[in-house]
Amino acid sequence: MEECNEITLCLSCLNHTFILLTMLPCVCWLHTILVLLSSALWTLGENCPAICLCPDPHTVDCSGRGLTRLPEEIPLDIRRLLLADNWIPRIPSDFLVLYSDLVYLDLRNNSLSHIEPGTLSTSSRLVFLDLGSNNLTEIPKGTFGETRSLIKLRLGNNPYLSNVNEDAFLGLTSLRELELERNALSTLKVGALKQLPSLRVVRLEGNPWVCNCNFTNLFEWLMENSHKLPNGVEGIECSLPMDGRQVSLTQLSMDSFRECQATLTLRDLLIIIFSGISVSVVAIMTSFFLASTVHCFQRWSKGTKGDEEETEE
C-alpha cells in the first residue's frame, strides 16, 4: 500500500511538472520523456501483485507474506520470482507454462510435499531453483524434465526426503551445484550423480547414511570426487550396520566393503535361476527322448523275434 501511494504521489508530481514545462516553449522536447516516464511508473505499479513487492520490472518478491497459494496476476515477462517463507503446499503443473523468461525461482521454506513430474520442465530458461526447507518426501523420475539451463538446484533441509530416483536429474546437463544436505537419505544411487556432466559442487552432509553394501558405489564415487564436496569427505558420516555407530568416511576404505564384493546382485540371481530352469528343461526333454528311444527299440526287438519264429515254423 505504501508503495502504491508513493507511485501515485510520484505520478501526481510528474503531471504538475509536465503542465509547468509545457508552458515553456524552450523545453517542449521534455514532453515525450515525461510521458514515457509516467507510463513506465504506472505500468510498474499496475502489474505488481498487490501483496508483493516489485523492486524492478522483472522481479516479484512475495517472500514472507503468509501465502497459502501462488499469487495471481504475476507479470508474464517476470525473470525473478521470490516466494520464500510462506505456506504454499503445491505448485500447479501448468504454472510455469506462461513464464518462459523465468530464470530465478525461490520456493524455500514452504509446505511443498511433492512436485508433479514435468511441472518444472516447462521453463526453458530456469537457472536457479531453491526447493530447500520444505516437506518433500521423494524426487521421482521426470521431476525436472530436461531443464538443460538449470545451473543451481537446492533440495537441502527437507527432513522427510528419503528417496531420490536414479533418473531424477536426467537431462540436467548444465547443473553445476546440487544441494542435498540434511535430508533423510540413507542411500543414493550413484547413477543419479553420474548423469550430471557439469557438476562442480554437491552437498550431502547431514544425512543418515548407512554404510552397508548399498552404500558401496556411492562411497567409491565420493572418494573419487571428494573435491566436489565443500568440506571433503570429512564432513560426511555414516552409521555402521552392525552397531549403528557413526563414523566419518575418512575412517573407511574400499576394504571396509570387501564382503560386499561377493554379494550376488539381482542380475546374478536371475541368471542362476534361469540357468537352473534351462538345465532342468533340457534334462527332462533328454530323459523323455531316451525313454522313447528305448521303448521303440524294445518294441522293434520283439517284432523281429516274432518274425524269426514264424519263419522257422
UniProtKB/TrEMBL annotation:
Taken from the UniProt entry, a GO cellular component term is: plasma membrane
Q: Which GO terms describe its biological process?
A: potassium ion transmembrane transport
Q: Which SUPFAM superfamilies does the entry link to?
A: L domain-like
Q: Which residues cross the membrane?
A: 18-44, 269-291
Q: Which InterPro entries match?
A: Cys-rich_flank_reg_C, KCNMA1_auxiliary, Leu-rich_rpt, Leu-rich_rpt_typical-subtyp, LRR_dom_sf, LRRNT
Show the SMART domains listed in the entry: LRR_TYP, LRRCT, LRRNT
Q: Which Gene3D superfamilies match?
A: Ribonuclease Inhibitor
All copies of the LRRCT domain together span 207-261
State the membrane topology: Single-pass membrane protein
Which parts form a coiled-coil structure per UniProt? none
UniProt domain LRRNT: residue ranges: 47-80
Q: Where's it found, cell-wise?
A: Cell membrane
Q: Name one Pfam family in it.
A: LRR_8
Q: Which UniProt keywords apply?
A: Cell membrane, Disulfide bond, Ion channel, Ion transport, Leucine-rich repeat, Membrane, Repeat, Signal, Transmembrane, Transmembrane helix, Transport
| Assembly with partners or alone | Interacts with KCNMA1.
Q: What is this protein called?
A: Leucine rich repeat containing 38b
Originating organism:
Oryzias latipes (Japanese rice fish)
